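Lay summary. Proteins are chains of building blocks that fold into shapes, and those shapes determine what they do. In this project we predict the shape from the chain. Here is one chain we studied, written as its sequence of building blocks.
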Amino acid sequence: MTSLPPTGPAPRSDLRVPSRTPDLESLRLLVLVADLGSLGRAAARLGISQPSASRRLSTLERGLGLVLVDRSRRGSRLTSSGQVVAGWAHRVLEDLDGLLTGAEALRTKRDAELRVAASLTVAEYLIPDWISELRRQQPELYVGLQVTNSEHVSGLVDSSSADLGFIESPQVPKGMSARQVATDRLVTVVAPDHPWARRRRPVTAAELSGTPLVLRERGSGTRQTLDRALGLAGLDLVRPLLELGSTAAVRGAVIAGTGPAVLSDLAVRGDIADGRLRAVEVEGLELRRSLRAIWPSGHRLIGPAADLVAVARRLGGRG
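And here is the predicted shape, written in a compact code that computers can read:
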């Protein structure tokens, strides 16, 4: 067989199979090299010497088993692999920022200047980014976050335990004003070895209605949306195979092969992309929904609460 000529940088003998998780400072350095176009400028931004930055990138390359930087007399630039990894690293650092911001909001809820209650799906996949953006605009603002299901969110807002709420239920609670901030859709998912994963035709709404599912608890927006969609289609509500109190628990049960579930696209898109779950098309059922901010009727939305709603509307369902 004729061998093909190499198309990228020559392999380095010191690279090996990935063996450890990269440290965050190395990822920050790689992202800065991509953003600033220079190892020297990236090192200066981090306050380290260029030789130290070069050694740090070499360690990252050995850990990942990839050539990330093309070094020459004209300077250092990212290889095609380096550019791809830098994009992934940027997302990792953004997710970390969201995690830290969300954790701070949970930790400081008692002394918060803005008290927010959010349903689980919104809290897990959206609100950390929203709060991070608001904090970039208002660094001194402290935001407190309470996480519960949609039914309880309205109770916290109604009792003045929260200034603002975010829900995923299909109807606006009585006594609340609301504004749509994003849209979402529910997806039926199964484990890869489930019979539905091999079907070539969609599952009907009637089949879904007649199949016991792994479900969120009553009062959750996901459960309310599914029940409402089945009711509008003239079908019976699903009989629970298992009821669980969080989206993560439902995902885990489906991945383990317990049974099908209907969950937010925000929650399962990564699992579907990685092959841990399979999405199943369902015909005859409308499973799109609005994600809303709510506050007491008759109250004007002002200050940080209004600012957070504006951020949420601008960023939308970008999870």
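What the prediction tells us: The CA atoms of residues 67 and 118 lie 43 Å apart.
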